[in-house]
Design a protein that fits this description.
The protein has helices at about 1-25, 45-60, 65-75, 95, 115-130, 145-150, 160-175, 185-200, 205-210; strands at about 80-85, 105-110, 135-140, 215-220, 230. By secondary structure, the protein is an alpha/beta fold.
Length: about 240
């Protein structure tokens, strides 16, 4: 009887050990890298939230964020409500000027907020996979890239020239109505419009999303002096 109980206990210990080993070596499920499953707010609601955040930034009263638990939560996936195409300028960080935190914004930054192929591909990813309902094309006052384009000077490298070439149509447009003293700031606004047009002209994914009502495009300009973000009107006759 004792032998039988000892034999059964040995078999049971092997069974438990085998089950534990199988569980430990089983492959874990890959973490999600696309949108997490929750309903997206409307584009207008997202824009209103951004403007409320910008108001907090302007007054110097940002919200406190619990970054450690938020970071852990976001390790399993992202679902930002807005895509922002903005300038690389160090003074214009969208997360700061809109008082947002980790995971809130899908940000694409290029000098002069131009929509080159890499920027377009990044935007398309957010539209097609994350399904963000709003794209903000954000320029800013005193933009160095636009100032360089307005100067008409030869750029010292092909890469810098590629940036200026993307901005030149906006400069040409501004020259049709702006005074010389206003040329740079007018071209900055026209460059925001030009970048938005380039996104739509060169991306079927974005065009279809806008056409179907799944995506809204907003054009805006950040004011370096005041910290305010101002929404730009769609130009009707070359003027902003």
């Amino acid at each position: 009887m004792v032998r039988k109980l000892l034999f059964l206990s040995i078999l049971l210990s092997f069974a438990i050990s085998g089950a534990a080993q199988q569980s430990a070596t089983a492959p874990s499920q890959p973490a999600a890298h696309s949108a997490t499953s929750h309903p997206m707010p409307s584009a207008d609601a997202v824009w209103a939230d951004l403007m409320a955040g910008n108001g907090r930034f302007v007054t110097g009263k940002p919200r406190p964020y619990e970054l450690v638990p938020l970071r852990r939560k976001l390790a399993s996936g992202q679902s930002p409500n807005v895509i922002i195409l903005s300038c690389s300028d160090s003074r214009t960080s969208p997360e700061v000027i809109f008082d947002q935190s980790l995971g809130d914004l899908f940000v694409v930054r290029t000098a002069g907020n131009i929509a080159d192929p890499v920027a377009l591909g990044s935007i398309e990813y957010a539209v097609d996979h994350i399904r963000s309902p709003l794209l903000v094309v954000l320029g800013h006052t005193k933009c160095g890239a636009v100032t360089a384009a307005c100067s008409g000077e030869k750029m010292p490298s092909p890469n810098l020239d590629a940036i200026v070439q993307k901005i030149n149509p906006a400069v040409a447009q501004a020259k049709t109505y702006a005074k010389p003293s206003d040329l740079i700031e007018s071209a900055i606004k026209d460059n925001v419009h030009q970048s938005a047009k380039d996104v739509l002209a060169n991306s079927e994914i974005v065009r279809e999303a806008v056409k179907s009502g799944k995506l809204k495009v907003v054009e805006a300009e950040y004011q370096l002096d005041t910290g305010e973000v101002v929404r730009l009107n769609t130009p009707t006759s070359g003027q902003n």
